[in-house]
Amino acid sequence: MKKNKISEALVEILLRISAGASVLAIIIITIFIFYKGIPLILKVGIVDFLFNLDWSPTRGSFGIGAMVIGSLAVTLASLVWSVPLGIMTAILMAEIAPHKISGILSRFVELLAGIPSVVYGFFGLIVIVPFIRNHLGGVGLSVLAGAIVLGIMILPTIINISRDAIAAVPEEYKVNSLALGATHYQSIGKVILPAAKSGIITAIVLGLGRAIGETMAVLMVTGNSTAVPDSLLAPVRTMTSNIVLEMGYAAGDHQTALFATGTILFIFIVILNLAVNISMKAGMEDGN
Amino acid sequence: MATKGKEKIVTVLFWLSALIIIAILLGIIGYIVVKGISVISWDFITQPPSRAGKEGGISTTIISTIYLTLVSLLLAVPLGVGAALYLEEYGRKNTRFGYVLKLTAETLAGIPSIVYGLFGFVFFVIFLNMGWSILSGGLTLAIMILPTITRTAQEAIIAVPQEYRSNSFALGATKWYTIKRLILPAAAPGIVTGIILSAGRAVGESAAVILTAGSSLGMPLSVTDPARTMAVHLYMLAMEGISMERAFGTALVIIVLIIFINYLANLSLRKVARQ
């Protein structure tokens, strides 16, 4: 009996340790990412680091401004088409399509989410880049190619989260709206979508977070020039691409500057996630 | 009447958006299947690459992918399932610790893979002196997939009916005995689904792997050897223009593996639904 009690207590301790592992992981990640990145940011100055357009690490100029613009350009351009397409599909799956067809559509969306980013990048490089070069001009490797590939990749995030938000709207809202004489689409537009608004915004924000952090697919199709892009057809380099491209040979301050880029990404994503989480928690307490 | 006509157009637009998404997915898969199928042969799967991948097959990269995925699962599964058991069976509900863990899991899930790669590089490769290796890559991937495994295991454990616990305790069984004999078996299909999905993520990951496991083409014999996974190999073949033909073959093998993993996950999900 006594032996039993000891082993029970031991199991609880072991399980508690596993529960703490993820907290430990995030603490160590934060410490190391900051420890490697912050000194260079302080040395260069945060404003200069973020906004200086001259990235010449071998000559001691560490400005990631062009890459910040690059990441924002590709991300925003990808949202422009994937957000409407994703939300339309989410509405179809939650409100319009028969249950069985929604189920089949979800299988497709899952598969879309499961395809690795290098495969998307490879497809982009082989199909989308030559298409742009031949039909729209430029070298093909461009903001546009990145936006197309990224948009495909974040569709699952946008669809899944908005669909759940739309499906979570209480049934009475719909019934009451229909009873008052609204058509199905009027109640979708005037009742359901406004009620699901915060969930749909969450979907867009998390999609944005994914897009900004995506690396390999973007790297393969955007051409990676460090100049600020002047059109959708111009090549561009994102913050994430810069890390992978130069990590292999960077040393000293150059390497630290790449870590500093990672630090910026890390801070940005963590803030984005915390904001979403806290606003969702607040939303839940409001009863939405 | 005008509204009716308008509504018809809107209906068409909704269905069109779903069709576009299906067309994109089938277009990508179809294109890679058509272009890659002629490259696939027994030799392509079983022979090691030679001349940096220009010739030969991709056997070492297949082995490396499996090896790395297994090492990451070996670490992440016990930790993730353990964490889920603690949170659902031991921890009191709605404590601050529980909230912190939930926030941690969601934050971990949102961190881009390149940041994991940087962390794995500075912590495992350099600081712990593990070098570019299966171990460094496996540990990094383990942290990446931990949130998914924990969350799916939690959901599976919550779904186990409360009577299982009360009946078992009433019969005098201890907590751990109840977990081992009743709760884990009942939650197994859900837990397995999470593990399979995580395996898919590990198989496809490239940014984090290239910085932590390296890109050596040799056959990894021990966990301290560097390795190049299929995903990293595809990247190298395509970006360095080594061999587009072999890149298509590699992409096809990856896609087939991912579709198979997805199929397995759905099989075990259906088992959950039947319960």
Keywords, please?
heterodimer; A: 288 residues; mainly alpha; MetI-like fold; two-stranded antiparallel sheet; 12 helices; 80% helix; globular; B: 275 residues; two-stranded antiparallel ribbon; 11 helices; 2 strands; 1% strand
The strand count of chain B comes to 2
Q: Strand sequence of the main sheet of chain B, in spatial order?
A: 1-2
CATH topology of the largest domain in chain B: MetI-like fold
Please list the strands of the largest sheet of chain A in the order they lie side by side: 1-2
Q: Oligomeric state of the chains?
A: heterodimer
Global Rg of chain B: 23 Å
- Residue-averaged pLDDT of chain A, rounded? 91
Number of DSSP E strands of chain A: 2
Provide the domain count of chain A. Answer: 1
CATH level-3 fold name of chain A:
MetI-like fold
Shape of chain B: globular
Overview of this structure, please?
The complex is a heterodimer of chains A (288) and B (275). Chain A is an all-alpha fold and 288 residues long. Helices cover 80% and strands 1% of the residues of chain A. In chain A, strands 1-2 form a two-stranded antiparallel sheet. In chain A, helix 3 packs parallel to helix 6 (143-167) and helix 3 (65-96) packs across helix 9. In chain B, helix 1 (2-36) crosses helix 11 (244-274). Chain B starts with a helix and ends with a helix. Chain B contains 11 helices and 2 strands; from the N terminus they run ααββααααααααα. Chain B is mostly helical and 275 residues long.
Write the topology of this structure.
The complex is a heterodimer of chains A (288) and B (275).
Chain A: H1 2-44, H2 46-51, E1 55-56, E2 61-62, H3 65-96, H4 99-114, H5 117-135, H6 143-167, H7 171-179, H8 184-195, H9 197-213, H10 216-221, H11 239-247, H12 252-286
Antiparallel strand pairs in A: 1-2
Chain B: H1 2-36, H2 42-46, E1 49-50, E2 55-56, H3 59-90, H4 96-110, H5 113-127, H6 134-158, H7 162-170, H8 175-204, H9 207-212, H10 230-239, H11 244-274
Antiparallel strand pairs in B: 1-2
Helix pairs in contact in B: 1-11, 3-6, 3-8, 4-6, 5-6, 6-8, 7-8, 8-11, 10-11
